[in-house]
Amino acid sequence: xxxxxxxxxxxxxxxxxxxxxxxxxxxxxxxxxxxxxxxxxxxxxxxxxxxxxxxxxxxxxxxxxxxxxxxxxxxxxxxxxxxxxxxxxxxxxxxxxxxxxxxxxxxxxxxxxxxxxxxxxxxxxxxxxxxxxxxxxxxxxxxxxxxxxxxxxxxxxxxxxxxxxxxxxxxxxxxxxxxxxxxxxxxxxxxxxxxxxxxxxxxxxxxxxxxxxxxxxxxxxxxxxxxxxxxxxxxxxxxxxxxxxxxxxxxxxxxxxxxxxxxxxxxxxxxxxxxxxxxxxxxxxxxxxxxxxxxxxxxxxxxxxxxxxxxxxxxxxxxxx
Length: 321
Known about the structure:
Number of helices: 11
Oligomer: single chain
Largest sheet: 6 strands, mixed
CATH class of the domain at 9-81 and 194-230: Alpha Beta
CATH superfamily of the domain at 9-81 and 194-230: P-loop containing nucleotide triphosphate hydrolases
């Protein structure tokens, strides 16, 4: 079942040259991309990359200073009411009344959307069943675990049957088991409703669950594509070498073996096909210089390094914008 709404030919989300400034700082520097209907796109980036600012603009909580964003054709700045009716939002900060039951929280949410009577009660029942909480409908939220409470948030966001789900760091504070449970129910909701989802995250494994990843850095879109396609662009293996003089070793490796070697955060980084063949040759050629060495297949963090020259969480600790 797909949600009611516009035809399937237009994107669920359209972002065109979107910009936003906080004083002298440019949080978004003119990014553009589409999200197809039924797709899950993960916004991945370190703190300060712009993903939270983008989320706030898409959810109509913040006006952009340039460019435009649309949700099923509704401009989020000029038609915020129409855009809100077409989206469900799960914010990072909890939005449930802990003294109310799960069903009571959904009932209040439904009334905000002018729902009532038998229709609302049937929606509440179906929403809680979908996230595995039919038997906990009458239980106060304060008695639920963090993972179960986040499932109530998900049910709340889907109550008015939106075509788009926006989720901002939805598993923050959850243990690994609760995180996996939340994603399982999100996948179930999307399969049953056909909803599109845009999720912000700083966790590589969560981003890898998306159909595509939008990789953000310093307000710019530095990569966009399916997880496998992004890691495939590295073209082989990644060797990281710890050494006392990385600049010198990088130059020596490039001269000796004819392969590019870059210094990234104090270590020598080599992207090369058949890295396992190069490793013993490196150790034999520079036995005194190599303090430690790792070999691995490319990850999303390697894609970030490839595009920006630093690791995804290097210097993490900004304001989250």
